[in-house]
């Protein structure tokens, strides 16, 4: 019988990385979420070779104090929660404290950061099996830049699963679309191989928000969308749903956010489908960008490491609220409301 041994920190992190770091887009998701959690107004994303060679995310958020830098790359280290009560009411996108540890165990990661009350920035990297942090002085404005090079360079089995540059970049692009739909108040730029692919200014007014939706989801969508805004006790649903006449052959334009987090949920999907049931042909799919706001204490976001799933405390209530709101909105549409943008 072999002896039982503790895994080295690097190997433990690499195993955990299996759950959250599937491809370059997963890295982008984690880094952008961190930037937004740090209160960034602006997030710049730079990608080379679909992200396999380089992912660089730069923000103007709060930054990380030099003393905290070694911890930022350690597993189970987070500034976002300290107690179970915090977890149950969590308002940030992150809270598990494992993204940076996981990513840095399967790539060459460097993080440079400066807080407002620091005169100089510092840079941290980790090395070796024990993932010891090395810190050096650096130049950087207030905020953080994370650079991830050579993703999966030390896990060849994973690297083999990377698809073509174009496919990987499409996933990154989709990831940024979701983040930008989730946070209108932040500006985003996305560059791929030195070419600017996306440039979005912060959107505060309704008009600016619709412009952003138009550039992310297509002008056709927003021109054919009904505005939703409804409230019930403890629940608010707002956003845009396409008229049945603007249906899709694939379910590729469906974004549902719960408290700012994009999620996939059977119950939500069912409620939306039911609302469209009488107005959409069987093999067509509705298009929507919807935001549900609920008391964080009534929804569990700690269902899966990627946090794509949630569990509602009162699923029935949420389902019926979504169904009723959308059903009514679609029933209220009169023919001359079609092509809102054009008339
Ligand atoms: P989590 O987001 O779950 O807390 P991460 O591993 O993603 O875990 O990040 C660890 C910690 O590093 C965060 O809790 C935060 O304090 C800090 N951090 C990471 N990225 C940033 C950033 N862009 N700006 C400020 N702080 C950051
Ligand atoms: Mg995080």
TrEMBL record:
A Gene Ontology annotation in the biological process aspect, one of them, is: mismatch repair
A GO molecular function for this record?
ATP binding
Residue stretches making up the DNA mismatch repair protein S5 domain? 213-331
> GO terms for CC?
mismatch repair complex
Ordered alphabetically, the record's keywords are:
DNA damage, DNA repair
- Sum up the protein's function in the record's words: This protein is involved in the repair of mismatches in DNA. It is required for dam-dependent methyl-directed DNA mismatch repair. May act as a 'molecular matchmaker', a protein that promotes the formation of a stable complex between two or more DNA-binding proteins in an ATP-dependent manner without itself being part of a final effector complex.
Q: Which family does it belong to?
A: Belongs to the DNA mismatch repair MutL/HexB family.
Q: What is this protein called?
A: DNA mismatch repair protein MutL
